[in-house]
Amino acid sequence: MQSIESQEILANLPLFESLSLSDIDKIASFSSVKTYQEGDVLFYEKDNKDSIYYIIHGSIKFYKVDRFDNEIFLYKLYSHSLIYNVSKLTDKFFVSCYANAEFLEESQILIIQSAPFRDMIYSNHQLMGKILEESFSMIQQMQCIISRDVVFDGTAKVAHMLVNELQTFNKLKKHEIAYMLHIQPETLSRILNKLTRNGTIEIEKNSVVILNIQELKDIYE
């Protein structure tokens, strides 16, 4: 694990860009940086780690495992994302369940001790504002997950991902996309074929090109 010896790595992160150099120095005093490889696990569900994490670069998936040992995908986070359990930021709430977190590629992670960071948040309005922005973003993501998994049918799930995550869609294999959307690979193929026949999309060299984005939005809005 690499200790932080200068302000540079923190000063260049969007989360801390509005802070003073003295604030950044203070955060650096109780933080460290670690590199993880694809397939490494950051934490398992119900682990009690007294840390807050920030993805400097890389990506990580969150998932749960049902009683039949089936892996249930929840969501992914990418570079410049904060990973934290709300119970680590306040002593007024407790969250007893979370998820497993596994890296999808080589990733560099900032590891922040939660207790001194929590004290600093309470005394620093700029930092509090940044944390609130991250919290609102997380809430919005959870709302999208609920809509995707509870309200959307298969076609709506695919249309939503094409509109909002086209680059990711084209980078992944079909079975990986199906896993993320909780549908069968055969169902994904049928939906893509239907959208192609309708002239909504076309597929060039195994990549989707959107021809009519409004038609895709109409499917799930």
How are strands sequenced across the largest beta sheet?
1-2-9-4-7
How many E strands?
11
Percent of sequence in beta strands: 15-25%
Helical fraction equals 40-55%
What's the CATH H-level homologous superfamily of the largest domain? Jelly Rolls
Query: What is the helix tally?
Result: 9
CATH C-level class of the largest domain is Mainly Beta
How would you describe the shape? elongated
Question: TL;DR?
Answer:
By secondary structure, this protein is an alpha+beta fold.
Describe this structure in words.
By secondary structure, the protein is of the alpha+beta class. The protein has 2 domains: 130 residues, Jelly Rolls (Sandwich); 69 residues, Winged helix-like DNA-binding domain superfamily/Winged helix DNA-binding domain (Arc Repressor Mutant, subunit A, Orthogonal Bundle), CATH 1.10.10. It is built from 9 helices and 11 strands. A 5-stranded antiparallel beta sheet has the order 1-2-9-4-7. Strand 10 and strand 11 form a beta hairpin. Helix 5 packs across helix 9 and helix 7 crosses helix 8. The termini are far apart.
